[in-house]
């Protein structure tokens, strides 16, 4: 369903003929490769197909991605995959994002199935792209070649907010493009091209549902366009509504949503033993944490092993692995692994309650008014309004471990109180999943308001044709995040400490009582009173209100001022100014009461609350703001080297850009490359190398501290799991990341000896230095314990089991990334196969990642290669194959998606007990290190009901392939975790 092409045209007339040909063809699903091979100047330059018009129609503009040069006959050296309108339609997705991310070169993108485990990230349901596995922050996403305001303060855009029905094609530039487009284009560019001159009316109605009777979907789209004033005034608009109900959550234990049975609580267990000849890490299914249960468990001391059922009655907990509680103060279980037993009573496990796919609802409106004030010159204004709402449940329950409770607690059954007296103790350690409380829900609401005004066209200067493009963009994105049913930790800690006073059960602390404390019975699953529930999970929960603004002023020129021996010298130059600003405000219990006064009584002053914030179990958003501006100018040239029948045609392409960041000063980017159309029919060579940059974003520079709760963080000193708060803070001294991107390729495009065939092979190598990165929470603790970086010892405190335990994480220009690999793409179009009517098309795209090295830059560490790590997002091989047959009446398409077998991490040393070397941080030992790849088949088809109405269907994951086992859950970045999906709909166009 994807097309990829090369240009061999040398004149405007030739391209006009081809555009008229494409008007009558199905772009992409049948023969797009052959047509685009003749039409597109390179995979980086594509000609927009205008609406149906008389044969005398002319091409009004050339839409370019990956370069700023827009002159006739130009061939750019940067490879680009082109996804046409027909491919988008055939994929029948409720969000175009799901179609684009199937490209093999896209690895690590975020969408509605990622970030669903998160309470505090603020990126739930955010649809953004990642090229080459370099992350969403290193891929630049454009709309009609123009920047779009970020949907979060990382600067990444949300494609869900784009006007999707009017998109003609999507260009995916697989390579650095900073010299052409500026910061962030390290991995490449994804450019959405809309039909700015659409006339008529078209629409789409679609519905979908999974095999498991969930993830119900609906999509309604309508677009219209009309010309006035002798075809000089052009109005285009679209509206769309889409809703996906999502999947999940499941129940406690191992029960997923629907009738899915693939979850086995696979866990990577750290024995924390390095030199006994056995693996340090063990992969085990049916892992049972023994620090808590569904309704509560005494976890240490003489009463260890006493659990409570839903009614609050005690029983002897069934440990897996035939485990026997040690009944010591440390709380170990003899016969079990550290922190886990295998099998036994798994009913308290919480991971099955995670949302598999976030619910998402989109509302998008778009309009554009253009006026041709002169021939080939237009003034226009466009506006884009969008709203995306998502919701997810991060996990079941809110497990609290290491709680100290009193034997005198009046809610404690009498038999357990008597056992306390017999054992001579007055208190005990306790852990619970808190299944008696409602589960946490996270709701996001993103709203984008974007206006662009511009001028573009052509003019003559010294008898030469020039193009210009000037625009001003103002974008605002408002993000609201609200968390329901989350523990207010100080209140919970006081509510569970109950006593009897004057015949009534009350909170033990008199200060807490004076400030409204309501006692809570956590022994069992009896629903709490409304007053107790409001006290520990107040309705006024955590919230975040963020406002992002972006202003861009851009002016670009392109032309061919000089005729040389082999053709015209083409140039493009321009300048741009950009300003990015954000502000965020959060509730005072999370952000800190000192930062914001209690709001309208919803967050009353309370001496139990920390004035520094972090009072919630999770969702402790912070206040902050930041701003930076960018001034830049660029020059790009295309120099023809030779052009004759004996040696073919070659050109040299180069660009340079100077950029001044208000935060980090001036930096240069550049690129140099070229193409050679050999005298051999259809054979072309190309190559390019570039220096690209990514400037630190607002989040990295000025982040309000992002707080995440780590409910089972392992404390290696005390050999226990604790609840820890991770605080991520900004660093205004960061400098830009600097990348070197090199690509070399060969293309065979539509040779006369095999019409309709195209193929390409491109090798790439990327090195990124001064990568903005930070130590992970576990690294900070580990480097302190091992005395590798003693400075990290002051960044955390894990010695208070009742909290607050914290770990502070900050970004630095510490790391580097190095990756290499190659892309392969081929397609063949067979017209009237075996004498049958219609066309048959074969197409395949593949990416092989040879290596993907990440170097933390820290002492005592070595680079880690994550190529082939299927727990991440960079498998060794990833490919997409399509076979389609279509006639004037119907079409059938098969699609296969596959990625190769991999592992949990290349750093691990696999060994069996008794034969393991000493386990080290750089080479930890493990007993199993394999994650299988996956093969998914999709099938779809269309049928023309009438001349203007087409019905269609699509089945994704036809064989309902389950995801592979992964530590704790599954990896939605690679695997399909929803299962078989059915979709059907009707399109119309008048």
Automatic annotation (TrEMBL):
InterPro entries (UniProt xref): Beta-barrel_TonB, Beta-barrel_TonB_sf, Plug_dom, Plug_dom_sf, TonB-dep_rcpt-like
Annotated signal sequence range: 1-46
All residue ranges annotated as the TonB-dependent receptor plug domain in the record: 75-189
Topology versus the membrane: Multi-pass membrane protein
Domain of life of the organism encoding this protein: Bacteria
Keywords carried by this UniProt record: Cell outer membrane, Membrane, Receptor, Signal, TonB box, Transmembrane, Transmembrane beta strand, Transport
Keyword Plastid: no
TonB-dependent receptor-like beta-barrel domain boundaries: 554-958
Keyword Plastid: no
Spans through the membrane: none
Protein location: Cell outer membrane
Principal location: membrane
Similarity comment: Belongs to the TonB-dependent receptor family.
UniProt protein name: TonB-dependent receptor
UniProt organism field: Caulobacter segnis
């Amino acid at each position: 369903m994807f097309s990829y092409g090369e240009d061999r045209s040398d004149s405007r007339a030739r391209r006009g003929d081809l555009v008229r040909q494409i008007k009558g063809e199905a772009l992409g699903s049948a023969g797009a490769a052959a047509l685009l091979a003749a039409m597109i100047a390179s995979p980086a330059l594509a000609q927009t197909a205008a609406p149906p018009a008389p044969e005398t129609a002319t091409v009004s503009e050339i839409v370019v991605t990956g370069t700023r040069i827009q002159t006739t006959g130009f061939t750019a050296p940067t490879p680009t995959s082109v996804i046409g309108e027909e491919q988008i339609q055939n994929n029948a997705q409720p969000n175009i994002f799901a179609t684009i991310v199937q490209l093999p070169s896209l690895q690590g993108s975020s969408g509605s199935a990622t970030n669903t485990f998160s309470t505090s990230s603020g990126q739930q349901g955010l649809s953004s792209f990642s090229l080459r596995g370099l992350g969403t922050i290193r891929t630049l996403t454009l709309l009609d070649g123009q920047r779009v305001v970020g949907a979060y303060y990382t600067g990444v855009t949300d494609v869900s907010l784009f006007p999707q029905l009017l998109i003609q094609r999507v260009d995916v530039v697989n390579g650095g493009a900073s010299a052409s487009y500026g910061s962030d284009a390290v991995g490449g560019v994804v450019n959405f091209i809309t039909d700015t001159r659409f006339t008529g009316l078209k629409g789409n109605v679609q519905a979908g549902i999974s095999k498991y009777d969930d993830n119900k979907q609906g999509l309604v789209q309508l677009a219209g366009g009309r010309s006035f004033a002798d075809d000089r005034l052009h109005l285009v608009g679209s509206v769309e509504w889409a809703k996906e109900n999502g999947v999940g959550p499941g129940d406690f234990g191992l029960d997923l949503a629907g009738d899915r049975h693939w979850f086995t609580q696979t866990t990577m267990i750290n024995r924390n033993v390095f030199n006994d000849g056995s693996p340090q890490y063990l992969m085990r299914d049916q892992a049972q944490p023994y620090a808590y249960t569904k309704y509560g468990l005494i976890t240490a001391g003489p009463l260890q092993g006493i659990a409570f059922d839903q009614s609050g009655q005690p029983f002897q907990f069934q440990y897996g692995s035939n485990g026997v509680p040690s009944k010591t103060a440390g709380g170990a279980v003899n016969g079990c692994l550290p922190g886990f037993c295998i099998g036994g009573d798994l009913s308290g496990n919480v991971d099955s309650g995670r949302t598999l796919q976030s619910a998402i609802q989109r509302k998008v409106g778009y309009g554009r008014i253009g006026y041709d004030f002169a021939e080939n010159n237009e003034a226009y204004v466009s506006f884009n309004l969008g709203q995306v709402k998502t919701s997810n449940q991060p996990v079941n329950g809110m497990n609290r471990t290491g709680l100290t409770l009193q034997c005198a607690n009046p809610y404690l059954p009498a038999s357990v109180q008597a056992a306390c007296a017999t054992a001579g103790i007055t208190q005990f350690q306790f852990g619970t999943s808190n299944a008696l409380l409602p589960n946490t829900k996270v709701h996001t609401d993103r709203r984008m308001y974007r206006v662009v005004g511009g001028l573009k066209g052509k003019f003559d200067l010294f008898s030469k044709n020039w193009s210009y493009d000037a625009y001003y963009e103002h974008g605002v994105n408002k993000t609201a995040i609200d968390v329901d049913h989350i523990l207010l930790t100080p209140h919970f800690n006081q509510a569970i400490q109950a006593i009897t006073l004057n015949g009534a059960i009350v909170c033990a602390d008199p200060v807490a009582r004076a400030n409204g404390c309501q006692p809570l019975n956590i022994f069992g699953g009896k629903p709490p009173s409304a007053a107790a529930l409001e006290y520990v999970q107040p309705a006024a929960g955590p919230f975040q209100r963020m406002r992002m603004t972006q202003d861009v002023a851009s002016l670009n020129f392109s032309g061919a001022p000089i005729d040389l021996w082999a053709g015209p010298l083409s140039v493009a130059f321009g300048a741009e100014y950009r300003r990015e600003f954000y502000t965020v405000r959060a509730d005072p219990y999370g952000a800190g009461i000192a930062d914001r006064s209690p709001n309208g009584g919803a967050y009353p002053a309370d001496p139990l609350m920390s004035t520094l914030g972090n009072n919630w179990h999770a969702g402790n958003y912070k206040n902050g703001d930041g701003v930076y501006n960018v001034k830049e100018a660029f020059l790009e040239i295309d120099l023809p080297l030779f052009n004759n029948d004996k040696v073919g045609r070659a050109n040299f392409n180069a660009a340079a850009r100077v950029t001044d960041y208000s935060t980090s000063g001036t930096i240069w980017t550049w690129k140099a490359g070229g193409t050679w159309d050999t005298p051999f029919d259809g054979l072309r060579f190309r190559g390019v190398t570039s220096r690209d940059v990514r400037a630190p974003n607002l989040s990295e520079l000025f982040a309000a501290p992002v707080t995440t709760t780590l409910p089972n963080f392992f404390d290696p000193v005390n050999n226990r799991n604790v609840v820890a708060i991770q605080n991520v803070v900004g660093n205004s001294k960061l400098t830009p990341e600097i990348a070197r991107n090199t690509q070399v390729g060969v293309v065979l495009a539509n040779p006369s000896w095999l019409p309709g065939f195209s193929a390409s092979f491109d090798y790439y190598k990327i090195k990124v230095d001064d990568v903005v990165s930070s130590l992970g929470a576990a690294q900070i603790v580990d480097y302190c314990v091992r005395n590798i970086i003693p400075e990290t010892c002051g960044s955390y405190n894990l010695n208070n089991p009742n909290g607050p335990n914290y770990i502070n994480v900050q970004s630095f220009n510490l790391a580097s990334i190095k990756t290499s690999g190659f892309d392969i793409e081929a397609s063949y179009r067979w017209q009237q196969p075996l004498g049958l009517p219609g066309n048959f098309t074969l197409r395949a795209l593949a990416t092989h990642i040879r290596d993907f090295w990440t170097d933390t830059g820290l002492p005592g560490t070595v680079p880690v290669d994550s190529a082939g790590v299927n727990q991440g997002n960079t498998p060794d091989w990833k490919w997409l194959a399509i076979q389609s047959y279509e006639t004037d009446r119907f079409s059938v398409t098969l699609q296969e998606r596959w990625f190769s077998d991999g592992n949990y991490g290349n750093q691990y040393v696999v060994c069996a007990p008794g034969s393991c070397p000493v386990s080290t941080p750089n080479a930890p030992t493990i007993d199993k290190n394999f994650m299988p790849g996956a093969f998914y088949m999709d099938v779809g088809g269309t049928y023309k009901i009438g001349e203007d109405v087409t019905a269609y269907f699509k089945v994704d994951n036809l064989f309902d392939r389950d995801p592979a086992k992964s530590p704790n859950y599954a990896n939605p970045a690679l695997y399909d975790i929803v299962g078989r999906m059915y979709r059907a709909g009707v399109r119309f166009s008048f």
